[in-house]
Amino acid sequence: MTSFNDAIPGYVFSGLFFTEKYLKKSPEKVRAFLKGLIKAFEYIQANEEKARKWLPKYTGVELEVAMKSALREYSNGREPEESLYRQQAIMMKIGYLPEKVPVEKITDYSFLPE
């Protein structure tokens, strides 16, 4: 058995989605949320052991698992294109995605802080 992190080092299985309607209605809320998320990434990277100890409380995973889990490497919130294409390849292989999609059509970093 292998984990996503074994198959794609640094890969953390998660993502965010905002509808076009919500982005148009509440762009400042989206920007504020993403700014806070990036601050959380930065805190986790600077205080890894302490941050991992909070995981069981908020995720329900065992502490032993939390201490071994992969952490996101990209604290600025931007996933490298290469990583996104590798994720697509896995999803195509297991049938979740019928064909390759240009990542610029499915990602929008314009709401992230500079």
**Which H/E pattern describes the elements?**
HHHHHH
Helix content: 40-55%
pLDDT < 50 runs, ≥5 residues: none
Distance between the termini: 39 Å
What structural class do the secondary elements suggest? Answer: mainly alpha
Oligomer: single chain
Main β-sheet: number of strands, strand sense, barrel status? none
Number of domains: 2
Q: Number of helical segments?
A: 6
Radius of gyration: 16 Å
Count all strands and give the number.
0
Question: How much of the polypeptide forms β-strand, as a percent range?
Answer: under 5%
Global mean pLDDT = 84
In short:
The protein has 114 residues and is mainly alpha-helical. Helix content is 54%, strand content 0%. It is globular and about 35 Å long.
Task: Compile the SSE list and pairings.
Elements: H1 4-7, H2 20-25, H3 27-46, H4 48-59, H5 63-68, H6 81-93
Helix pairs in contact: 3-4
What does this structure look like?
With 114 residues, this protein is mainly α. The chain folds into two domains: 19-75, no CATH class; 79-106, no CATH class. Helices cover 54% and strands 0% of the residues. The chain contains six helices and no strands. Helix 3 packs across helix 4 (48-59). The mean pLDDT is 84.
